[in-house]
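Input record (one chain):
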Amino acid sequence: MGQPTPLRIVDEVNVLPAVNAEVFAREAAEAGGPARLDLPEGEGAAAEAFALGGAALAAWPFEHRPPSVRPTALCLTRDVLHLPGFGAILSPDGAVLRASAGEAVERWPDLSGLPGAEVVDGVTRLTLPDAIPTLDRASVFQAWGGNFNYGHFVLDCLPSLVALDEQGLLVRYPPIAPPLAAWQRDLVAMAAGRPVREVKAKVVRIAAAAHATSMDHYLHGPGDLLARTRARILAAAPKPRTSGRRLYFSRRWHSMRVMVNETALETALRARGFEIVRPERLSAAEQVRMAQEAGIIVGPTGAAMTNALFAPAGATIVEIQPRNFTSQWVWAAARQAGVEWRGYVCASPVDPGAVAWRHRLRRGFRFGYEVPLDDFLAFVDAAL
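The corresponding structure, as predicted from the sequence alone:
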């Protein structure tokens, strides 16, 4: 094992020189760098139709306007280390590029979760194995959250892969990722039309690497890069067989955030012609096609609502948000599909004793909440 190296986080914008497209292309062709190409970012479809409601709306912490678009840059680096399972790209002296590790940093602000990392006297140090595989060139697109979360994979990782592909980088810098699940491989094939090299090693050296800063929570402010990613996926996905479906995405079998009266809500929605769906039981292609067939999608906030991105223009998304777990990311995805988003904010949490024991005993349980049925159903009826 090598000597422990102290880690520090640096911003790509501060350490990689900005160049124009011509210089960046030349640097990429020659495996040069370091270099950064700031990409123009538009609003995409940017549907502005939205509505907000719910008894707890006053507690919603955001402005009542769509989230702002975040800038994206393509980055070239040389002679770096990469931890595939965490997204992190770092120099041999311990400088970790923030965007590559942004999602891991949210989980471990001190980077202590990285393999081989240890905190000593308040400093996180990384000890590397003696034998590290070396790659000549590679593109990195897989953020930590994308390893297990459908939303992060679709909204952070795939746009990063597309951004690299649009600049012709994937040919010279073959994409790599940690071992993928079948649904991830299917989405990569739809978005980029090529497989990725799956790397089992915890650490690799890359002589020349490329990545996009959209790896870092692009879902919170996507622009037309996400719209183009959507277009690619829809072009390759199975074509819709019908239209106007009323869908409810159930979370009754999830124990992290528990809607204590979800069964009653599902019963009421069935009476309105809704199908109760568990998207996690479907393949990626089936989820995309299902969303294309929707006229309205209703569901609690969660990864399944990522499929709002694939709904057809003119559809409506109704998202239930507990007061203590609010966000704008589904709204942001819906905008890029050109669909209407409606957010309903309800009081939360309830007394844990109101949550069924089978949920409370499961690992990962956070809280329970209750949707006021009459008020929420009136909110849904207004969208029909």
